[in-house]
Amino acid sequence: MTRRRKASRRNDRKLTPGPAAVNGALLFIIVVGIGYLCFKSDQPDAENDLRATRRTVPDPPVLRITTASGVKVADIDNAEFKQWCEKVGLPPAPPISSLDPIIASKCRQVFLNAARSPTAANLGLAGQICESLQAHRSARVFLSRAASLDSGEFRWPYLLGCIAQMTGDLAAAQEWFERSSKIDAEHAILYARYGQVLLDDGKTVKARDMFRRYVSLSPNDGMGFVGLARIALADGRPDEALLQLNQALQKTPNDFQVHYQLGKTLVTLGRKEQADKHFEMAGKLPSGVQFNGRDSIIQELNKLAGSVELLVSELRGIRHSSDWPRMAEIIEEIVQRRPGDVVMAVNLADIYRKLGRIEDAHALLDRLETQYGNLPRFHTARAVLFIGESRADEAETESRKAIAIDPNDERAYDVLARALVVKREWQDAETAIRKSIELDDGTIGKTVVLGEILLGQKRLAEARECYARVLQVEPAHAHARQRLQAIDRLSPDDSSPRNQ
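^ thats the sequence. predicted structure below, dont judge the formating
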């Protein structure tokens, strides 16, 4: 019996769910996959014929739980687990020792299910776990077996195409994506991936057809227009490329690829100043997320990983953006998975501040102080909150508490200086920020603060030098550029604007 998975005609960018009550969203797809597996086992199709007869196999190695750095982790002999896989006819298992115990236990059970009852659902779920743990070879074997058992399931050939694309196997990617399109002709992101692979392989005519198909399925997303623009630019038609990219800009104005490709196209057209603006904007946006950010299947797969590193990697990818809600979700899950990570917990309090969740930020810091005691970073984080609430006196008090505990805490001096700037206590503020710079001069933010302090004291030449240094490091720093322009309009004698 052939079944077609109905996919949404639109693949708008979505945020993945936040932590669940028991073990976070990391378990979501494993649980869903097991539920899906149970549903499929009742279906009267080819999957339940003699090929799916339950086999008698030995149990895999025992999984124990140990504690490392205050966090409970799984303990299993990875080499012995691989030997077990070979003995029961499965591809090698990825290392699962040191993962979260619940995740590792589920993974072990999924492999045992695949060995005892090699149905498409069991094999496919094992393949997804392997891929989420970057075990590409084993993932390909599992998913290929699943695809051969259930030729009507979209997910298996599609994931095989994605793996081939990620590993640079363009021929295999095209084969699997073509097969996927015959199962579900309305899964939009498939055509964006297929078009990219064809473009990488120099097959621009068919690539154009794929991107047009994506545009028809996701008309409110700019990615299809970007693909069409890249083809036009490669064919020597920059004017057409610019038209496509302007449409993309209207659809998704905060997309890295839109601005990067606009920059390239404008350079080709000799419009360098406009190109530089788009390159600057591209530099502020997360790159490398054009497919996965729109792909619900890959997002689900990534939740299967037992390592927090995938979450940390995602966080790095969006750190220069202003996607505070997604950052909060990621850090909440990291903190839940690594409860002893105090630095990440303090980062979460700061993200709450940026989201305007001030009460949540204070409550989190209260819990951290109760659990870990009187640490300088807690006082500094609290001081930052108070500055945002226009409570400069309390911010100064908290900063000085941090300095009393650790006189070499450069961050505490930095925050103290900012609190004193709010109070217009310029001399004490200058002393504090220069002490912070002396301890660590690694951030241009401190140079900006020093510029503000010098400007407050009407020391224009010195302030100008500070902002000029900032622009040398970060040419797109808008505040520094505005301050330089303001200083240039001031008279050095009375600090009154020249042109007013």
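DSSP finds 25 helices and two strands in the chain.
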